[in-house]
């Protein structure tokens, strides 16, 4: 059930068996399995932490068989991610999306926020840095203009994976097997969205591979258009999606490609260089 464990370096003895108050004998509301899962998550001290099952068992004092079941479950729901090459776990996208502590730990967010603000002022739109969490894209940073009140997004805001430019760009960015898995999840949650989404993906796959970005107009909301690209961060082992949302009345498909996409590609290159420097 669980992944094979792998020892990652030497553990600090001070980290072993974190002191977490257990339930009172009369506390019927306490859910032990939830507490143990949170104990597992507490073992990871940053975006770069890598731990095997044996490491986690040593830190928490839990039996390795219990840890194996917990890490398997946490991986299935996205709170852990398994690194096949290094045979170890790290915090997953779901944990990153909901954790303000981890968000504050992302390097150079202030610089990226400044770039997003500059781009937003040039295009009269909403620019965002997003990450997938299950069937949503979550905003980690935004750059906005005051003129487009309806498109205001804040950190932590969610938009659907299936119908937004950010989500569709993500689907085009991942491996075929991962894309199909997500499409099946979308079909189970919102069956009506799957046929048009599959058609869109098939129609735009070659263009995305050639141009490096995806354009989606009116699929999420009829008055909204968007363009997005993906940037992989070696420092975080994650794919971030940078997206631009504008009013369809101002930007159609061709104007998006002509005026907004070049700015987005330039931003993506700046972020890639920054990400490479952080990983060096």
From TrEMBL:
Keywords: DNA-binding, Transcription, Transcription regulation. One of its GO terms (biological process) is negative regulation of DNA-templated transcription. Residues 31-93 form the HTH iclR-type domain. Residues 1-24 are annotated as: Disordered. Residues 94-280 form the IclR-ED domain. This is Transcriptional regulator. The keyword Transcription regulation applies. Pfam families: HTH_IclR, IclR_C. It comes from Chelatococcus reniformis. GO terms for molecular function: DNA binding; DNA-binding transcription factor activity. PROSITE patterns: HTH_ICLR (PS51077), ICLR_ED (PS51078). It comes from the Bacteria. InterPro entries: GAF-like_dom_sf, HTH_MetabolicPath_Reg, Tscrpt_reg_IclR_C, Tscrpt_reg_IclR_N, WH-like_DNA-bd_sf, WH_DNA-bd_sf.
